[in-house]
């Protein structure tokens, strides 16, 4: 009997190691994300926001669409972004306005980064309906600490927590995300369709969508945008 024990342990160890792999999300997925965040700092004081997102990701056709609704102290915003890699275009749609910029480089596959450490595995729920998840910890751009949970089967996102300390203005911020209604295909591919009518020529930029000045400008526009007063065209 004794000689049977070892293979079982080896098998268990093997299974545990397999589960800790740094997996990638499916090549196609569609999900709803609810997000809540707050920040505190001596300069900006406290602020908080709530938001929801619809994300459609297609690594085969190389397209990504993100629709976002946020509420920050009663200021509601809606915007949509389309990343179309084959066309080399990024669209930002806010209310009735739209902006087109260049998109260069390769689309990134959404994965648990190689340097992430595995914190543990656990089950939500009970019995056969329980959901086994793996939890990972990693740092993005040095300062944002990310806790990410993905399902063992299928590598689908479940929850995520970002914490960040900005050393220059001593601001700390926290963002918590929950992913629901996740499917491993895009529910409605029309989310990737570029805006009709197209963005006005003066809102078509030759800069890259990753251009820092452009990103800051987009962030500013997003903060200014309110659902109640669409921008003038
Ligand atoms: C990260 O922290 C470094 C200093 O530790 C700072 O210079 C840099 O601006 C920070 N980056 C971000 C994105 O907060
Ligand atoms: C998730 O799907 C259910 C059932 O279709 C729907 O009622 C619910 O509104 C969806 N949740 C979100 C956050 O979209």
Write up this protein:
The chain has 233 residues and is mainly beta. It has one domain (28-224): outer membrane lipoprotein receptor (LolB), chain A. Helix content is 13%, strand content 49%. The protein is built from 2 helices and 12 strands. The chain has a 12-stranded mixed beta sheet with strand order 7-8-9-10-11-1-2-3-4-5-6-12, covered by helices on one side. A hairpin with a 4-residue loop joins strand 4 (75-84) and strand 5 (89-94). The model is unreliable at 1-17 and 227-233 (pLDDT under 50).
Individual helix count:
2
Strand segment count: 12
CATH class: Mainly Beta
Helix/strand order, N-terminal first: HEEEEEEEEEEEEH
What share of residues are in beta strands? over 45%
The average pLDDT is 84
Widest beta sheet: strand line-up:
7-8-9-10-11-1-2-3-4-5-6-12
Overall SS class: mainly beta
User: What are the bound molecules?
Assistant: 2-acetamido-2-deoxy-beta-D-glucopyranose
Shape, please? Answer: globular
Reported CATH architecture? Clam
Q: What's the helical proportion of residues?
A: 10-25%
Query: What does the radius of gyration come to?
Result: 21 Å
**Count of separate structural domains:** 1
Largest pleated sheet: 12 strands, mixed
Protein name: Hypp7194 protein
InterPro entries: Ependymin
Keywords: Signal
GO biological process, one term: cell-matrix adhesion
């Amino acid at each position: 009997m004794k000689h049977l024990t070892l293979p079982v342990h080896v098998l268990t160890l093997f299974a545990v190691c397999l589960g800790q792999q740094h997996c990638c999300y499916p090549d196609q997925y569609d999900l709803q994300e609810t997000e809540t965040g707050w920040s505190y700092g001596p300069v900006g004081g406290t602020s908080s926001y709530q938001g929801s997102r619809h994300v459609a990701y297609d690594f085969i056709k190389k397209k990504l669409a993100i629709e976002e609704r946020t509420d920050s102290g009663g200021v509601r915003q809606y915007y949509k972004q389309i990343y179309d890699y084959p066309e080399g275009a990024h669209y930002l749609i806010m209310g009735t306005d739209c902006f087109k910029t260049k998109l260069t480089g390769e689309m990134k596959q959404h994965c648990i980064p190689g340097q992430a450490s595995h914190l543990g595995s656990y089950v939500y729920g009970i019995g056969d309906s329980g959901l086994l998840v793996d939890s990972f910890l990693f740092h993005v751009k040095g300062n944002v600490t990310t806790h990410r949970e993905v399902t063992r089967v299928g590598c689908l996102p479940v929850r995520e927590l970002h914490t960040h300390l900005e050393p220059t203005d001593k601001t700390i911020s926290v963002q918590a995300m929950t992913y629901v209604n996740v499917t491993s295909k895009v529910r409605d591919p029309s989310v990737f369709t570029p805006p009709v009518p197209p963005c006005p020529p003066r809102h078509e930029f030759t800069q890259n969508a990753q251009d820092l000045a452009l990103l800051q400008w987009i962030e500013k526009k997003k903060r200014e945008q309110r659902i109640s007063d669409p921008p003038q065209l």
